[in-house]
Amino acid sequence: MEQLLAPLQLVSKVEVGRSLAYVSAIGPWSASGANGGSAWAAPTPSASGPSWGADVSTNAFSPPAAQGISPGAGGKTEKDLAKREADLVKREADLKRREAELAAAGGSTGPRKNWPPYCSFTYHDIRGEIPEGAQGMVRCAYWCYLGLVLCLFWNFVGTAAALIGLGGGKIATFLWGGLYLIGGVPGAWFLWYRRLYSAGMRDSAFQYTVFFAFFMAHLIFVGWSAIAPPILNSLSHTGFWEAINVIGDNTGVGVVYFIGAALWSIEFLWSFWVVKMVYSVFRGGGHNMRSVRNDAARQGGPWATNAA
């Protein structure tokens, strides 16, 4: 048996010897490393490039270009930022130029009055003052205001036609028509259109609420004028009811009233579309009664004491 196990023991000793020799050659306790020194010593830099030690010494927070990293997709972002910066610089230069022109002309450095074109009393610039997301809403409300001006003017023409074509006793109708025109045009501008303009420009929840309040009154007046029910001096409104009544007495006056009724109807439908659009923007902006009270408190409004 000992003679049979002797060759196996010899092979085992040879294999163990080889393994120990290999571990001694590569292990940290070896007498010399790959470069002739200790295995734990820093490797000697090669002539072909930076060594491992040199790579470790590189600052990890240095710019990508310093570490040899290509900017890749970041180049596009830098171009976009540069473009935006150039646009801002251009706008700032344009504002300074306008201020210089106004100062040279002896005027104030604020916005120059530009509306209405031939008798300016205020500054109006939807594209320049209203954010892009609210421009469509404000522009629709602006056309609604212009439509109201047209309706009030035609309503005044209708009452004048009634005064001339239907005989005496219509002086009150004519005066009411003139009162609607004189009071309605500036009233609508300041009470609901400028409120919406300011709300769109500043995203003010309180201004939106003021707009809704006065625009509801506008809707009621326009709807009433389109129908002109036979109460409260109905002839002062060129609505369908009065158009049917007067066309038998004077065809010309009746036609004028029917045109006015059609204009009032279009204005009512357009106004309904405007309030629907404004409400969508109002809710889409995350506004609610709490934000209205908070905004009123910031502006010193009547709800300031109840602000949360």
Automatic annotation (TrEMBL):
Family recorded in the similarity comment: Belongs to the SCAMP family.
Region (Disordered), start-end ranges: 34-57
Lineage top rank: taxon: Eukaryota
Major place of residence: membrane
This protein's record includes keyword Heme: no
Name by which UniProt lists this protein: Secretory carrier-associated membrane protein
Keywords: Cell membrane, Cytoplasmic vesicle, Membrane, Transmembrane, Transmembrane helix, Transport
Cited InterPro entries: SCAMP
A Gene Ontology cellular-component term: trans-Golgi network membrane
Membrane topology: Multi-pass membrane protein
Subcellular location: Cell membrane; Cytoplasmic vesicle, Secretory vesicle membrane
Ranges annotated as biased composition (Low complexity): 34-43
